[in-house]
Every structure is written in C-alpha cells, then in structure tokens.
C-alpha cells in the first residue's frame, strides 16, 4: 500500500463527513491524503470545505449526462486520472452503476445512517422512530452493486429515546459518523482491511459481525 494512501471523496451536499476526513488528514498527514473531491452538485457546501483545505475539487453534474453509465464513466475518468487507491462515498446521493461498483470493488467505502441491513435508502432516522426502535446508528461498508448492501465493516449504535425526533437522531448519528469514517479509512490505508471473497476482512480475519466502534475508542 502506497503511503500516504491517496483517496477520492464523493459528495452531494453538506460534507460534514468530508470535514471529519479532512480534519483527520490534517492531524495525521502520513496516513492518507485526499487527492480529489467530486460533487455531482455545484452548490454542495462540501466543495467549500475542500477548497478551504486546499484540496482539488471537481463538479460532475449528473444532469449533463444522458444516463447513469455515462455519468459514472465521467467520474471514473477523473478518479483514475489521479491514481486514487480508495474511493470514499460521503453523502453521495446517486445510485451507482454495476460497471462503476465492479471497477472499484474492494476499493470503495460508503457510510450509511442506519444499522444495516435495516433501512437501506433514504429517511432512515424517521423509519427507526416510526418502528419504535430502541437503538439506531450507522454502518460503514464496502460498496457493491446492491444499494447499501455491501459487506459490513463497522457499526456504531446510538440510543433512540422517547423524545428523539429525526433531527436529534441525525445529530447523534452524525457525531458517531465523524469518529467512525476516518478510522475505517485509516484501517484501509494501513492494510488492515480488505474485501476477499465477498467478505470484509480485518487484521487478517474475516469479519463474522461488523466491528463495533466503541471497541476501538482507544484508536480514535
Ligand atoms: C450521512 O448521514 C451519511 O451517513 C449519509 O449521508 C449523510 C451525509 O452527511 N450517507 P454529510 O454530507 O457528510 O454531512
């Protein structure tokens, strides 16, 4: 693994997870370097976060392409031109083609605000509330063609209290996400994390269950 690991981060909006990844990079510049931030939206606030940190940005508007595959190919060209070793989806709100996910299989991560396999897709916080769940959380996983369905790497749980609404719950989950995502990228950079035979491996062992963030609070 080349050090520091060169990564691309794909966003569509606020980019608070991108900010956490930037902050970690600034504290640990030897672990990974963000070579490129791509947004499919020109007004994504995350682009300003990247520019402030001196990170190259690129807007690829999906509306400029006739279909999903041609949009994905345009992103792939930009990413591969930078010789990126890991693609990090951080609030990237487009469904990816099988061609794209296959090209980056084992080299692309996503973070999702639910305890997958519960609640793939949108509105996860409200769904957890509506179902009366006692806990909620986040998942980090390798990306496959199945939406929010790739092999799980890490989860973190938050309590869902009677007075929580979707906003308070999102806030709690976000706080955990900002701890979790840089840590998982770090593990990948250190060669401790791989996708093999459709399963996530950590420290040379297949993961029977996702790692729980709280077990690794000492590494944060
Ligand atoms: C996060 O909750 C992430 O789990 C989901 O999209 C949200 C992005 O938030 N995939 P931000 O743009 O990083 O603030």
Annotation, overall tally of beta strands? 11
Give the CATH level 1 class. Answer: Alpha Beta
Q: What is the percent of helical residues?
A: 25-40%
Characterize the quaternary organization of these chains: single chain
**Main sheet makeup:** 8 strands, mixed
Q: What is the assigned CATH homologous superfamily?
A: Formyl transferase, N-terminal domain
Distance between the termini: 22 Å
Structural class category: alpha/beta
Q: Which geometry do the CA atoms define?
A: globular
Supply Rg. 17 Å
Low-confidence parts, pLDDT < 50 over ≥5 residues?
Answer: none
The H-and-E topology, N to C, reads as EHEHEHEHEHEEHEEEE
Number of domains: 1
